[in-house]
Each structure stands twice: as C-alpha cells, then as structure tokens.
Q: What sequence folds into this?
C-alpha cells in the first residue's frame, strides 16, 4: 500500500519560514519524481517544486529563490523548505510521487501565511 504523509504545515507570519516533509512508503522512492503542489481557495492546483529521480530540481517562478526542495533517499522523505513566506503562499500543499504514468498523492497540509 502506497502512502505519502505530509507534515510541517501551520500558521506563520509573513517573512517567516516553514519546512514541509513528505514521508513515502510502498514505492521505490529513488525512482520517482517527487513534487510539491499547492491549491489555494478558488484556484487550480499548481506545481510548486519538483525533484526528479536523478536529483535535478525545478520550481515555479513565484517561489524561486525562496523555496528549496530536497530529499533523503535513506528516509524515503522529500522536503520543502519555505523561506520569506508571503500571504499569497497560503494554500493546501500536497506531496506527489510520479513515475511515467503512475502517480500518488498525499492528503495535503495547510500552510497559512498571515499576520
């Protein structure tokens, strides 16, 4: 059974930081592209950051220089370090694992940036 379990969300003030974690089980973790998506109320889900099986990364323009995606293969865990958070980063953040046509989703974790 495949499970992706996110943690680390919460309420943070503008300019603050959070680190999201996504622990994966039931998949050959190192062979999957691991992505972080987010969905704000009334908006479509968007890809925020991805780390590919080879270790390269990609980010949506709005988070470049502020967010960093990384992984620990030994722990089957992917992270999203979020710095200099803005109110517009408020959303539910989802972990995604993808390999060719197969993909899995986590349940999501809420991130709220507000003073």
A:
């Amino acid at each position: 059974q495949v499970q992706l379990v996110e943690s680390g969300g919460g309420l943070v003030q503008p300019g603050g930081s959070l680190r999201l974690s996504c622990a994966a089980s039931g998949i050959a973790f190192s062979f999957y592209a691991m992505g972080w998506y987010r969905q704000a109320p009334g908006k479509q889900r968007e890809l925020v950051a991805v780390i590919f099986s080879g270790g390269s990364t990609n980010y949506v323009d709005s988070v470049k220089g502020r967010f960093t995606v990384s992984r620990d293969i030994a722990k089957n865990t992917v992270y999203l370090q979020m710095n200099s958070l803005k109110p517009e980063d408020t959303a539910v953040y989802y972990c995604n694992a993808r390999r060719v046509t197969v993909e899995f989703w986590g349940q999501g974790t809420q991130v709220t940036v507000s003073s």
